Amino acid sequence: MTARAAARLARESRNWLAPFLDALSIAGPRILELGSGEHYADSAVLSERGFTLLACDRRPAHTTSLSVHAFAADISRPLPVRTAAVDTVLASLSLHYFTWATTVEIFAEIHRVLRPGGALLFRVNAADDLNYGAGIGDEIEPGYFRSDGRYGAPCKRFFTEDTVRAALTDLFEVSHLEHRSSDRYGATKQVWECLAHATSATRGPGWSSNRKPA
Q: Measured between alpha carbons, how far is 13 from 27 in angstroms, rounded to an integer?
């Protein structure tokens, strides 16, 4: 990555996280980032603010930060994190690569590792994210397209407001949900930003990962 690209990435991380810093401070100091990438841009911003970061990725890069602990994990599988172990889960552009059933399971696993009332802050592709593959390729299931890696991954999901809320199920209460534009990768990207909090709901009888939006 060039110095200019690194600076743009750091600036974009500061800008998107800034409105949520007070809410994250209220939630508590322990943050788990899902899909941190090799540059830890979001984790770096938060560690500068005094948060303690667990940052996972399928192939985590080395980090010299004393407040960022990186480890390998596939977020589509159960996380190697204790139940109710963290105050916040952060997922920036890492939750939109999966089938619907897997997506809902991931949100349920996030709920498990959060303390009661803990925060979930995330961004996902929006359905109008035309610069990054929305509507392009074979539609495997509603909103989920196979593009053979042309846009950074073999398959990508593009969310509407309804599907964001459907993925959260009753395990989370939405505090903030907004459609935004981002310049994280150069060309304008359309995303949904969401802050939600873990409810006391559990995966009891009748719970299903096959739930679809109305």
A: 19
